[in-house]
Design goal:
Number of strands: 38
Distance between the termini: 122 Å
Shape: elongated
Membrane topology: Multi-pass membrane protein
Strand content: 25-35%
GO cellular component, one term: plasma membrane
Pfam family, one: DUF3522
InterPro entries: EGF, NGX6/PGAP6/MYMK
Subcellular location: Cell membrane
Length: about 750
């Protein structure tokens, strides 16, 4: 056949350590139909400071693959919520082959067409809280590339017609495809008039949606005569691929005929007619993919590139149990993103008769609905059973309803199908099912009522069970509970939702409490973080006593907003917010930096108010730019220290003596205060993690407040030499005023001049 190669690539993205599904990187691909091989080229490289990270440690990267919807992963082996079905996926771990780059290859032969999703993440780390910009972090970038090779002009088989084929000696196989419409209960593929050097040395393989593989449904035509392969309950509205493969080592050509018969379950005694006058009869797509094939609305041509086609006799009987029942549709009501309710006409209470199942269809839109959670709820009305021991079984299957025998209704499985089982009875009248990230398309729910007897379950007589049925699509499972937050995430044009847990809770729905914080622990951490701000009371008292009223006001502001910010910032249920979280965070950060600013300006003994206003404006701008950036926060503080250094240097030069002048000031105040502040910064930058945050950050509060008490300078002493002062006359008296006292720099106990002189 003729092959066409397509290439797809995605932009490199930075990977993060796994904490929840919200921390993974998701990549969306689309594989076209008739693809025979798909090759993913997985490129991973390190970066550090804009260059290759040769010094970065090797960290394993896990990649997950799934067709139809994102993978439901659980690398931490946490517990899923009750009644949750976990679909499978394939995982691959990449190891490093070069110091800064590695490449992995993942091949899929005959992949299913449609949407494919790749999820990648790093292993879970120790949860260290790093200061942004303190050092160049190692970044691990991941870029997937997809190369697909697909066949074109695959021959199409038409039900009821024979296709003749002659396989040359150098050819190994012939590939065909046939479209299976809705309400088809059986597909029968048959090889006729097979002639070769050794009888009929052919293998017949059939697979849905994609070309057959070595493990697909197969039949050896040498051992079976006639060579017929039957598939019960095929997928509706899909292509089925038929591969006729020659045995290895068979010389000479092989000629044969292939025909396909489709059984209409609405008419179990008849097959579908070989001639269909319009496309609506078969619901076939407008593109068949083969040159010279049958066009919709046209009569079958007398000849084709493969040979002649002519009708074959229709079978007059079909196996039992192929009767199908009407499928009741559901009404789709979209409330919000991933918030969709499916209403049943004349529902939500439905009647399940004893002699036949009740079948409903739920249609999930491609791409749009696969990022949420499909929820089903069955509630049995016990009063409708009239005292009978009735059990209602529900089978949820993808793309075809399961309406066969009683055993299949109980197990919800056949040789080729496996669905999700729900059951309700008099003792357990409620049943739920949750499917995270469901595959899109049609989901069929078949309800069947059976009575329990000594010999197992048998059809009931004259008992019609009434069941309340609820089906809906939600973003997350139970909105992630009280210890989680449901986040709506986006990767390119694809939306999906995931839970982000807190307070030590884990799991897909934040229901795993193996590492959860107790209420007492949450209360203790909240009290430590809040009450540690009381350490600012001594600096406030020292500032008021030394007449640093502006500084005292800033310390009070910092103490107030830091207390209530940490009361609102807690991950558990011990939370108290007096304002919006963003307002409290901004005020806490601004107060902390303003405390540093005013303390340093006070140490410089500079009085102009313009410096305080300048600091407030600079810090507000820095916090608005990046609230967690290191240099945006450290820059204004270094600027204030530079002002203080200039002021101290000027005083040292003018006085020809080191400033501050006394060794006691250096030994008992400045050095201890600087050491305490340095210890606080080191704890904050290098020791703080998510596990020890509540007590390390509380120690940070204590140390910062304590350093302010040491570093805040004492009140300025008055000057010993008093120059002549201008005199002001009033009411015949001269007022002798001490200029230093007027400026508030003199202690009242040491005031030397406070007299009233007679003019």
């Amino acid at each position: 056949g003729l092959f066409v190669t397509d290439y797809f690539t995605r932009t490199p993205r930075k990977l993060s350590p796994f904490r929840s599904f919200a921390s993974i990187e998701l990549f969306h691909f689309h594989i076209p139909e008739d693809t025979v091989i798909a090759v993913w080229n997985l490129i991973t490289f390190k970066e550090q400071g804009g260059t290759f990270g040769d010094q970065c440690p090797d960290r394993s990267i896990t990649v997950y693959f799934r067709s139809g919807a994102p993978s439901v992963i659980n690398p931490l082996h946490t517990h899923f919520p009750r009644d949750t079905a976990v679909p499978g996926s394939f995982a691959l771990t990449l190891t490093w082959t070069l110091p800064n780059r590695t490449t992995g290859v993942f091949n899929v032969t005959s992949p299913l067409p449609g949407d494919w999703f790749l999820a990648a993440h790093l292993p879970k780390d120790e949860g260290k809280i790093s200061v942004k910009g303190l050092y160049e972090e190692c970044q691990y970038l991941f870029q997937p590339q997809l190369i697909v090779q697909r066949l074109v002009n695959i021959a199409v088989l038409y039900p009821g017609y024979v296709t003749e084929q002659s396989m040359a000696p150098h050819n190994r196989s012939s590939l065909y495809k046939v479209f299976v419409p809705s309400y088809t209960s059986r597909v029968l593929v048959e090889v006729l008039r097979c002639r070769g050097a050794e009888g009929c040395p052919l293998w017949l393989r059939v697979r849905a949606k994609a070309p057959p593989l070595h493990n697909s449904t197969a039949l050896d035509c040498r051992e079976h005569a006639p060579c017929q392969l039957a598939l019960d309950l095929p997928f509706w509205q899909h292509w089925y691929y038929v591969l006729v493969e020659k045995h290895s080592g068979v010389p000479g050509p092989v000629s044969f005929q292939v025909t396909v018969q489709l059984t209409d379950c609405s008419r179990p005694s008849l097959a579908r007619p070989p001639f269909l006058p319009s496309s609506a009869s078969m619901n076939m797509p407008h593109s068949f993919g083969s040159a010279g094939g049958l066009a919709l609305g046209d009569s079958p041509p007398p000849a084709s590139p493969n040979g002649t086609k002519h009708p074959v006799p229709l079978p007059t009987a079909s196996p039992a149990g192929e009767q199908c029942w009407p499928v009741r549709p559901t009404l789709r009501n979209e409330l919000d993103t991933f918030s969709v309710h499916f209403y049943i006409f004349f529902g939500p209470n439905v009647s399940v008769p004893p002699d036949r199942p009740a079948v409903f269809v739920i249609n999930l839109l491609p791409v749009l609905d696969s990022g949420g959670v499909l929820n089903l709820e069955l509630r049995l009305n016990v009063s409708s059973l009239c005292g009978e021991n009735v059990t209602v079984f529900g089978c949820l299957n993808h793309e075809v309803p399961l309406t066969s025998g009683d055993n299949a209704s109980v197990t919800c499985e056949t040789e080729s199908l496996a669905g999700f089982l729900l059951s309700v009875n008099t003792t357990a009248s409620l049943s739920r099912l949750r499917i995270p990230y469901p595959q899109t398309g049609s989901w069929y729910l078949s309800l069947r009522s059976l009575c329990a007897t000594e010999h197992g379950f048998e059809p009931c007589t004259n008992v019609t069970a009434e069941v309340y049925l609820r089906a809906y699509l939600s973003p997350c499972i139970n909105d992630c509970g009280i210890y989680g937050q449901c986040k709506l995430l986006r990767t390119n044009n694809y939306l999906y939702a995931a839970c982000e847990c807190k307070a030590g809770w884990n799991g897909w729905g934040c229901t795993d409490n193996a590492e959860a914080f107790s209420y007492g622990f949450q209360l203790l951490s909240t009290l430590l973080l809040c009450l540690s701000n009381v350490m600012f009371v001594p600096p406030v008292a020292i500032a008021v006593r030394s007449h640093y009223l502006l500084e005292a006001a800033v310390y009070i502001f910092t103490m107030f907003f830091s207390t209530f910010y940490h009361a609102c910032d807690q991950p558990g249920i011990v939370v108290f917010c007096i304002m919006e979280y963003d307002v409290l965070q901004f005020c806490d950060f601004l107060g902390s930096l303003m405390s540093v600013w005013v303390t340093v300006i006070a140490m410089a003994r500079l009085q102009p108010v313009v410096l305080y206003l300048l600091g407030a404006m600079l810090l507000s701008m820095a916090l608005q730019m990046d609230r967690h950036g290191l240099w945006n926060l450290l820059g204004p503080s270094l600027f204030a220290l530079g002002i203080m250094a200039i002021a101290w240097t000027a005083r040292t030069i003018r006085r020809r003596h080191c400033y501050p002048p006394t060794w006691k000031r250096w030994a008992f105040y400045l050095c201890p205060g600087a050491l305490i502040a340095a210890a606080a910064v080191l704890l904050y930058a290098f020791v703080e993690t998510e596990e020890n945050y509540f007590y390390i950050h509380s120690i940070w509060h204590l140390l910062i407040a304590g350093s302010v008490g040491f570093l805040l300078p004492p009140r300025a002493k008055p000057s010993r030499r008093l120059g002549p002062l201008p005199r002001r006359k009033g009411c015949g008296y001269q007022l002798c005023v001490n200029e230093q006292e007027e400026l508030g720099l003199v202690d009242p106990a040491v005031a030397s001049i406070n007299s009233i002189c007679t003019s």
